[in-house]
């Protein structure tokens, strides 16, 4: 999920949109590491200060806002998160990386996200986890959820998409919107593991082109 969020944000910025990537994963800070963004004040340090102080420039029209709280996650921290959405009004595109845990639901609700993309693998564990997340979203969140498969394609994608669609229709009484799939890029994965920055790795990757149709589907018709 985090990699796909970064790809969407970088692609949006590369076509001229003022883009804000929100790292809403409570315990990690991977987006800052991947993008090489400077540190700002932490949630604990911000207190009642303006939430704009949490925003760090990345490159061009891309900015990062990290909501990592770690052990300091508390009622006070959640109150700060609820003050963030007005910042979205000044940006053309906002991408929220909420992580993979069910705790992500709380962050999505507090940030009032407009739509949700559930990124999943095509294996049995990934499909089961996605079904559980879809069920939780139906109960706790009002935003519609769409599915994007990662590191898959071909017949494997067709089978996995069919399994998810049938399960959603039978047990959740809903029709799934599947955005497609992104292929695996071993060079990118290995580079991230070695600690290379994501923008540098994308120079020799086709993933930004691959993610563009997904971004187009997510944008409002007037902005696509």
Provide the descriptors you would attach to this structure in a database record.
224 residues, alpha/beta, Rossmann fold, 3-stranded parallel beta sheet, 10 helices
Structural class: alpha/beta
Strand order of the largest sheet: 2-3-1-4
Amount of helix: 40-55%
In DSSP terms (H or I, runs of 4 or more residues), the helix count works out at 10
The proportion of residues in beta strands is 15-25%
Q: What is the domain tally?
A: 1
Report how far apart the termini are. 22 Å
Write down the secondary-structure element order: HEHHEEHEHEHEHEHHH
Main beta sheet, described?
A: 4 strands, mixed
The rounded Rg comes to 17 Å
What ranges have pLDDT less than 50 throughout 5 or more consecutive residues?
none
What is the molecular shape? globular
What does this 3D model show about the protein?
- There is one protein chain.
- The chain is α/β, with parallel strands linked by helices.
- It has one domain: Rossmann fold, CATH 3.40.50.300.
- Helices cover 44% and strands 17% of the residues.
- The chain is globular and about 50 Å long.
- The chain has ten helices and seven strands.
- Helix 1 crosses helix 10 and helix 6 runs parallel beside helix 7.
- The longest helix is centred in the C-terminal third of the chain and has 19 residues, at 154-172.
- It has helices at residues 2-14, 30-35, 43-46, 75-81, 104-111, 124-140, 154-172, 186-193, 198-201, 207-218, and strands spanning 19-23, 55-59, 62-66, 93-97, 116-120, 145-150, 177-182.
- It has a four-stranded mixed beta sheet with strand order 2-3-1-4.
């Amino acid at each position: 999920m985090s990699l796909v969020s970064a790809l969407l944000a970088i692609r949006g910025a590369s076509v001229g949109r003022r883009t804000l990537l929100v790292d809403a994963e409570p315990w990690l800070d991977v987006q800052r590491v991947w993008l090489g963004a400077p540190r700002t004040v932490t949630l604990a340090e911000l207190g009642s200060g303006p939430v704009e102080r949490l925003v760090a420039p990345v490159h061009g029209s891309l900015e990062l806002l990290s909501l990592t709280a770690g052990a300091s996650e508390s009622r006070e921290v959640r109150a700060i998160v609820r003050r963030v959405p007005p910042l979205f009004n000044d940006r053309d595109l906002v991408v929220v990386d909420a992580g993979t845990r069910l705790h992500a639901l709380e962050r999505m609700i507090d940030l009032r996200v407009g739509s949700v993309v559930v990124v999943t693998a095509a294996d049995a564990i990934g499909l089961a986890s996605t079904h559980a997340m879809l069920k939780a979203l139906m109960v706790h969140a009002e935003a519609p959820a769409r599915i994007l498969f990662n590191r898959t394609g071909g017949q494997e994608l067709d089978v996995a998409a069919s399994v998810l669609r049938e399960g959603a229709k039978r047990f959740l009484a809903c029709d799934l919107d599947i955005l497609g799939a992104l292929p695996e890029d071993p060079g990118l994965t290995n580079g991230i593991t070695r600690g290379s920055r994501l923008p540098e790795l994308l120079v020799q990757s086709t993933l930004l082109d691959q993610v563009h149709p997904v971004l187009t589907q997510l944008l409002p018709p007037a902005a696509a």
